[in-house]
Amino acid sequence: MDEDISDAELLESLRYRPELEAEAPAKRSKREAKRETEPFVHVTERELLAGLRALDGAHELAVWLYILRERRLRQALSLPESFALTNRALAAWGVNKDSKRRAVRKLAAARLIGVERDGSHSPRVSICGPR
Fold it and tell me: Which terminus has fewer CB within 10 Å in the chain: N or C?
């Protein structure tokens, strides 16, 4: 130790000072930290392969992955699994309405999804295929 510092000065430098606590970042709970992680898609191998067999191209596959992701989120929140597949939601994933239309048609033909149409509104989809 440096001999220029007295015991009293050393103790004072180690003393708890509440004003410094306000400057320190607040501790976050595990739940809060969990919410800040990057979103991800969790699919089974079986679900992924079924979509790959039925679809052509990355944009169509993105529609299938979005549907699977939305189903998992809805299950976790105890919401109905059937939902409106909107152009706006898929646009955030880089999917245009034509790719969505083709993917929905192909997924329905492969019996991976059920589709309810209501005129010009977005189709409501639910998963029928592999789980």
Answer: N
Residue bearing tokens 């596959």: 61
Check residue 118 and give its pLDDT: 86
CATH architecture for the domain at 45-127: Orthogonal Bundle (1.10)
For residue 80, the one-letter residue type is P
- Under 8 Å between Cβ of 68 and 44: no
Q: Read off the pTM.
A: 0.70
Residue type at 66 in one-letter notation: Y
The 3-state secondary structure of 71-97, one letter per residue: HHHHHHCCCCCCEECCHHHHHCCCCCH
